[in-house]
Design a protein that fits this description.
The chain is of the alpha+beta class. About 45% of the residues lie in helices and about 15% in strands. Helix 1 crosses helix 2. It starts with 7 loop residues before the first helix and ends in a 7-residue tail after the last helix.
């Protein structure tokens, strides 16, 4: 299984994206705090999260869309992101 060395803030944000994805279809870009943009950018570049918006996928332009005032970007967890979270769960060794 793939392992990613995530910082605590990246891991927390990945979990937040997962919960938001399950609850209401993704984490809106409007919900991100200023200090979370860098962590989100890294999660996207690692392929753990995808940025979707009214223009479709924005793999290299979530910052551009944010700067242009587009608030319709939604971050959704990918299969790799789910595996990264599952890989960190404690295993039952019995």
């Amino acid at each position: 299984m793939l392992r990613f060395a995530l910082t605590p803030s990246e891991h927390a944000l990945l979990r937040e994206v997962r919960l938001s994805d399950e609850d209401h279809g993704g984490l809106s870009g409007d919900e991100l705090e200023t200090d979370e943009w860098e962590a989100m950018s890294r999660l996207c570049s690692l392929g753990l999260v995808e940025a979707l918006g009214e223009y479709g996928e924005a793999p290299d332009g979530e910052e551009d869309e944010r700067d242009a005032g587009a608030s319709a970007v939604v971050y959704r967890i990918t299969h790799s992101g789910i595996l990264a979270l599952a890989d960190e769960l404690p295993r039952d060794e019995s």
